[in-house]
């Protein structure tokens, strides 16, 4: 018998077509859509884990395989009507919930098929319910304020695609880069959002940053921010990618260059390039952890590294892998988190083990030795598979974070949020 989840994309196309005919509105019509009702997923739809015989693509689920691959354990989400369009960034909050920057759903009347009708910072509660932090906003016709100027997150003009990797500070606030150069003339900003009220402030919290025409010193403070984290003392650490600098912003707003180009981007030493694509603060050791990949031209190779950086700027490399040559042969790393004991976890495209993305933990920093936490070599016809962690299949890992109960959440590039239980079971949590 054909599984009920087969050809969801076709069903959705029919639904949208019927909605357009009934409403009498052609696709692309710009008439007033009526009062905006922010989407949420607060109605329980299931009582247990749902098992789908399906694969994942841009339409999320398609039924072209015969063995069950997807285990959905969030009772508030509907496989035939995905909540998120494209999740951009994810972080684990102190109450066990997730914060996700994303666009969401389709237009209520269906005539904007293919375009999400809401954007925002969403909260996925520990039980799976999805609501907006502060508020979501529609994607059409709404004026945009400058972000970080005494407003809350839902009233800013921040688009999810502007946001870089999020980190959670000791006080529970979110810190992240926002690159909105074309919109307001800035070369890059760092923002802090307090939870649960959603209030936004720039880092440093300089009133000049909120002026209609900020002074040049503010506009050029950062050139291209890769990542940012806040330590328990209230200092914000910022990796400026274009200038090859590691900056520290103290609670009073003073900016100090901790490391410069000679340390972060040493000429002729690609194995010592500190990309800073992802950063997390290791509270157990009082250190910054930085990871990422660097594409070198001489030699032509991809160098993936993880570094520990002390507050005084002392560097030590704890992981190195290359795409060409001897194992482990890694085609880039992404996603980074540190557990309560200081163990580093990250995602890696492992070529030497048959291909596919895996999640690793660094078990011996002196030797750079890792252990696979989840992920298996992926068959060519499968890009998503739940189940036992060492048999599961992942797309590129965009983000990782732990909640206090030991659950590891994974932002999968297939536009999914997945989780790995402490017992080692992988399930699909949100989409």
Strand content: 35-45%
Overall pLDDT confidence? 86
Largest sheet: 5 strands, antiparallel
Specify Rg, calculated over alpha carbons.
Answer: 22 Å
In the predicted model, the low-confidence regions spanning at least 5 consecutive residues are 1-31, 182-186
Annotation keywords:
37% strand, 431 residues, globular, single chain, 5-stranded antiparallel β-sheet, 4 helices, mainly beta
Can you offer a commentary on this structure?
This protein is mainly beta and 431 residues long. It has helices at residues 8-23, 181-184, 216-219, 261-264, and strands at 50-52, 70-72, 84-92, 98-104, 118-124, 130-132, 137-138, 167-168, 174-178, 189-193, 200-203, 225-230, 236-240, 245-249, 255-259, 278-282, 287-297, 300-309, 315-322, 330-338, 344-350, 357-364, 369-374, 387-388, 397-402, 408-412, 416-420, 425-430. The strands form seven sheets. Strands 3, 4, 5, 6 and 7 form a five-stranded antiparallel beta sheet that branches. The chain has a five-stranded antiparallel beta sheet with strand order 24-28-27-26-25, with no helix packed on it. A four-stranded antiparallel beta sheet has the order 8-9-10-11, with no helix packed on it. The radius of gyration is 22 Å and the shape is globular. The two termini are 26 Å apart. Mean pLDDT is 86; it is low at 1-31 and 182-186.
């Amino acid at each position: 018998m054909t599984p009920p989840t087969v050809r969801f994309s076709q069903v959705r196309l029919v639904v949208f077509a019927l909605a357009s005919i009934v409403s009498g509105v052609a696709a692309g019509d710009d008439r007033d859509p009526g009062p905006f009702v922010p989407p949420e997923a607060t109605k329980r739809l299931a009582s247990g884990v749902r098992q789908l015989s399906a694969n994942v693509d841009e339409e999320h689920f398609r039924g072209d395989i015969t063995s069950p691959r997807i285990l959905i354990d969030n009772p508030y989400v509907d496989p035939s009507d995905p909540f998120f369009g494209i999740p951009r960034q994810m972080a684990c909050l102190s109450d066990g919930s997730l914060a996700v920057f994303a666009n969401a759903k389709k237009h209520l009347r269906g005539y904007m098929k293919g375009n999400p009708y809401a954007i925002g910072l969403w909260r996925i509660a520990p039980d799976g319910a999805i609501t907006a932090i502060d508020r979501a906003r529609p994607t059409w016709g709404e004026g945009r304020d400058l972000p970080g100027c005494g407003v809350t997150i839902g009233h800013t003009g921040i688009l999810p695609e502007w946001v870089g990797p999020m980190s959670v500070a000791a006080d529970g606030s979110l810190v992240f880069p926002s690159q909105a150069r074309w919109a307001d003339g800035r070369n890059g900003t760092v923002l802090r959002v307090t939870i649960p009220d959603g209030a936004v402030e720039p880092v440093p919290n300089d009133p000049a940053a909120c002026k209609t025409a900020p002074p040049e010193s503010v506009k050029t403070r950062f050139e291209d921010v890769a990542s940012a984290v806040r330590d328990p003392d209230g200092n914000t650490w910022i990796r400026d990618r274009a200038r090859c600098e590691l900056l520290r912003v103290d609670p009073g707003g003073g900016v100090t260059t901790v490391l410069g180009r000679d340390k972060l981007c040493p000429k002729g030493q690609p194995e010592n390039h500190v990309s800073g694509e992802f950063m997390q603060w290791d509270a157990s050791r009082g250190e910054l952890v930085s990871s990422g990949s660097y594409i070198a031209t001489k030699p032509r190779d991809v160098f993936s590294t993880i570094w520990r950086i002390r507050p005084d700027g002392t560097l030590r490399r704890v992981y190195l892998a290359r795409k060409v040559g001897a194992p482990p042969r890694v085609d880039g790393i992404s996603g980074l988190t540190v557990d309560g004991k200081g163990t580093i976890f990250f995602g890696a495209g492992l070529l030497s083990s048959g291909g596919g993305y895996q999640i690793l933990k660094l078990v011996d920093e002196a030797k750079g030795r890792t252990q696979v936490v989840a992920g298996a070599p992926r068959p060519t016809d499968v890009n998503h598979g739940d189940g036992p962690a060492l048999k599961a299949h992942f797309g590129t890992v965009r983000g990782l974070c732990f909640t206090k109960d030991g659950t590891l959440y994974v932002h999968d590039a297939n536009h999914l949020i997945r989780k790995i239980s402490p017992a080692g079971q992988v399930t699909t949590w949100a989409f």
